[in-house]
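pinging the channel bc i need a second pair of eyes. not urgent but kinda urgent?? the chain im working w is below, pasted from the shared doc
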Amino acid sequence: MTERISWYPIAPRESLAPETQTLFNMLEEKLGFVPNVFLAFSWKGPRFDKWRAHFEDLMQPSPGLGKAEREMISVAVSMQNGCLYCLAAHGFAVRALLKDPVKGDRVTFDYQRAGLSEKHVAMLDYAVKITNEPAACNEADIQSLRDAGFVDEDIWDIAEVAAMFNFTNRLASATGMLPNPEYHAMAR
């Protein structure tokens, strides 16, 4: 029995752009499956391509904000939004990047008690504030992050990653998107 992964159509693979088909083949080779977010969103063609390009660029590490930090932001935001898809998929990424499944799950479900540094807690507190009270964000938040050791480029990226996941969480929830079952057992 095949589980329905979205309330919207899933485009037949042969109808997708050749670049998307190549991406899907590469993901199947690397992961053993195509992430459901790609399957669910690909029917929108050019919008999917633009979202994916922005997402991939945004998740590239920088000197002050590595891949693990970007993924920690993703799960802190996703927990606030109750996004099943992103908690499963990016929870796996946090476990894998930290090379510690216990700490990875703690970051995903309650970063405040995960044993993170003060700097990382400040980063995630800001991402949560952007998620829950965006109009309450102020310049003092930026200064607090500078004081914690982040430079302006990092702080901008914290905000942009949080915003990307707020968008993606809302789209995943609004479309009934389910995570691939494989994510639940990965990096354990």
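so The chain has two domains: 16-58, 67-174. and Residues 152-174 form the longest helix (23 residues). — does that match what u expected or am i reading it wrong
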